[in-house]
């Protein structure tokens, strides 16, 4: 079996040997974009190179970029534990051409690596193209010899990428792997496409147009390439698994969690172990990159993820704080590729322990309140917003944690009621704050983030500048 660590190395070596600079992953907190909450795609550290603000000595680069998608509009947090393919933290393998090679070579590289270097069977692969991109359609036929019914034209924004309202944009091509007998969803483009049978493994972006105020105004003189492939998804494929959570890295983390809780990852407990393993990675990597839990901004996203994992640890019956005891397993798996993890290990463990001790003080009372408040509710009902707010305010339950807790029972949460209760409390707090003479920068930032609703670059699906805020 090829390990995840070997797959990462093999990807970087392939592109390194084809003239790409092998670049270290940038931190999860983007240094070049204060409006972006976390680095969430491999191209983020290269944004200024694509727009021409910065130049690099070599016009090609490759990286395995740490990414977090756990906030903003395209938020994968709610998928974790429930789909085979989503994580809050994942690594995006990418190759980039800054005005150097374009479509033909990008498709050739992707196809060569997948089918020749890694030996994937051609008949398990499909490609999507943007509906008007005849050039890409023909290239897939010519280079890969894919039959026409395995090159799917998609007309949605999913297959058109833009950096914002102004700047480079262009069509995408997504490569899917057909996991065959796991018939949970339909082929891409079909109504039930968001299933798990056909899993998107690699996204190629062809930056070829220039946009001004959301309108295409011309072609780029030197088109560029940006690609992203989820390491965990390709690891699943190469390890003969359908599910990211059955790959070597996740198996090791889930085994550690099973052993410390003495609960097997089966039945209802399976999702809890998955959530714990996933959130262990995102929280540890965020801590290693200097994010600390707090009640606003990035720190609050971190705290929400932590608490969610901690509730699942509690669900598994953990009597004592669990998360910090899983860190050694993570360092064993990923510490060689990411030395910052090992360096930050004491900080990660202390922070997780302190947070879990603190949260456990109110956790069982919160759960009691939640149980009482939902005793009479059933599928299709909604928990009143004020109760969700009380859970948040008194018991430290982030909104999404309450949602997650009720999801299995089909009970929703009244978001409007929650927001109204929150707004009321904020107004009261603000009235009390007036006159202290201090500029509450982070509070302002938090407010803006809430108002705009998105503090995340939305991967390859963003088509408006707003989505990037
Ligand atoms: P999906 O449609 O499956 O949510 P996406 O189109 O949102 O994926 P992209 O923004 O194109 O994903 O990111 C490039 C690649 O990164 C994807 O092809 C996939 O392999 C991987 N990826 C994206 N989101 C996640 C995630 N939450 N967890 C793991 N891998 C991911
Ligand atoms: Mg997505
Ligand atoms: Mg997609
Ligand atoms: Mg995609």
UniProtKB/TrEMBL annotation:
<keyword id="KW-0436">Ligase</keyword>
<protein>
    <recommendedName>
        <fullName>Alanine--tRNA ligase</fullName>
        <ecNumber>6.1.1.7</ecNumber>
    </recommendedName>
</protein>
<keyword id="KW-0694">RNA-binding</keyword>
<feature type="domain" description="Alanyl-transfer RNA synthetases family profile">
    <location>
        <begin position="2"/>
        <end position="469"/>
    </location>
</feature>
<keyword id="KW-0030">Aminoacyl-tRNA synthetase</keyword>
<keyword id="KW-0479">Metal-binding</keyword>
<keyword id="KW-0963">Cytoplasm</keyword>
<dbReference type="GO" id="GO:0008270">
    <property type="term" value="F:zinc ion binding"/>
</dbReference>
<keyword id="KW-0547">Nucleotide-binding</keyword>
<keyword id="KW-0175">Coiled coil</keyword>
<keyword id="KW-0820">tRNA-binding</keyword>
<dbReference type="GO" id="GO:0005829">
    <property type="term" value="C:cytosol"/>
</dbReference>
<comment type="similarity">
    <text>Belongs to the class-II aminoacyl-tRNA synthetase family.</text>
</comment>
<dbReference type="GO" id="GO:0045892">
    <property type="term" value="P:negative regulation of DNA-templated transcription"/>
</dbReference>
<dbReference type="GO" id="GO:0006419">
    <property type="term" value="P:alanyl-tRNA aminoacylation"/>
</dbReference>
<dbReference type="GO" id="GO:0000049">
    <property type="term" value="F:tRNA binding"/>
</dbReference>
<comment type="function">
    <text>Catalyzes the attachment of alanine to tRNA(Ala) in a two-step reaction: alanine is first activated by ATP to form Ala-AMP and then transferred to the acceptor end of tRNA(Ala). Also edits incorrectly charged Ser-tRNA(Ala) and Gly-tRNA(Ala) via its editing domain.</text>
</comment>
<dbReference type="GO" id="GO:0004813">
    <property type="term" value="F:alanine-tRNA ligase activity"/>
</dbReference>
<dbReference type="GO" id="GO:0002161">
    <property type="term" value="F:aminoacyl-tRNA deacylase activity"/>
</dbReference>
<keyword id="KW-0067">ATP-binding</keyword>
<keyword id="KW-0648">Protein biosynthesis</keyword>
<keyword id="KW-0862">Zinc</keyword>
<dbReference type="GO" id="GO:0005524">
    <property type="term" value="F:ATP binding"/>
</dbReference>
């Amino acid at each position: 079996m090829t390990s995840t660590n070997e797959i990462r190395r093999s990807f970087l070596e392939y592109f390194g040997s084809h003239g790409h600079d092998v670049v270290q992953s940038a931190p999860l907190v983007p240094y070049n974009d204060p409006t972006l909450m976390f680095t969430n795609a491999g191209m983020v550290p290269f944004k200024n190179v694509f727009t021409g603000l910065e130049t690099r000595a070599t016009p090609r680069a490759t990286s395995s970029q740490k990414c977090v998608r756990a906030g903003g509009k395209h938020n994968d947090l709610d998928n974790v534990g429930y789909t085979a393919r989503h994580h809050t933290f994942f690594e995006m393998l990418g190759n980039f051409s800054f005005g150097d090679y374009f479509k033909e070579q990008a498709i050739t590289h992707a196809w060569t690596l997948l089918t020749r270097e890694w030996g994937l069977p051609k008949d398990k692969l499909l490609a999507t193209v943007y509906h008007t991109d005849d050039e890409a359609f023909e290239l897939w036929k010519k280079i890969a010899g894919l039959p026409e019914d395995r090159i799917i034209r998609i007309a949605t924004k999913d297959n058109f990428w833009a950096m914002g309202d102004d700047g480079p944009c262009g069509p995408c091509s997504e490569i899917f792997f057909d996991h065959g007998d796991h018939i949970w969803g339909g082929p891409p483009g079909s109504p039930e496409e968001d299933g798990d049978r056909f899993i998107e493994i690699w996204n190629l972006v062809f930056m070829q147009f220039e946009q001004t105020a959301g309108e295409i105004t011309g072609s780029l003189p030197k088109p560029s390439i940006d690609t992203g492939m989820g390491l965990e998804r390709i690891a699943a494929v190469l390890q003969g698994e359908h599910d990211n959570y059955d790959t070597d890295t996740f198996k090791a983390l889930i085994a550690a969690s099973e052993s410390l809780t003495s609960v097997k990852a089966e039945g209802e407990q399976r999702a809890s172990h998955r959530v714990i393993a996933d959130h262990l990675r995102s929280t540890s990597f965020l801590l290693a990159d200097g994010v600390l839990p707090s009640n606003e901004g990035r720190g609050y996203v971190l705290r929400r993820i932590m608490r969610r994992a901690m509730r699942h640890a509690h669900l598994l019956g953990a009597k004592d704080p669990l998360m910090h005891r899983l860190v050694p397993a993570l360092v064993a798996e990923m510490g060689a590729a990411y030395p910052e993890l090992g360096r930050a290990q004491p900080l990660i463990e202390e922070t997780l322990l302190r947070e879990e001790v603190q949260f456990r003080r109110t956790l069982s009372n919160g759960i009691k309140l939640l149980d009482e408040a939902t005793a009479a509710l059933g599928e299709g009902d909604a928990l009143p917003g004020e109760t969700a707010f009380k859970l948040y305010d008194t018991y430290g339950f982030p909104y999404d944690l309450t949602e997650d807790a009720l999801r299995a029972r089909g009970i929703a949460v009244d978001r409007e009621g929650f927001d109204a209760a929150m707004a009321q409390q904020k107004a009261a707090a603000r009235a009390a704050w007036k006159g202290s003479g201090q500029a509450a920068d982070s509070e302002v930032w938090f407010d803006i983030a809430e108002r705009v609703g998105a503090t995340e670059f939305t991967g390859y699906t963003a088509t408006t500048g707003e989505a990037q805020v």
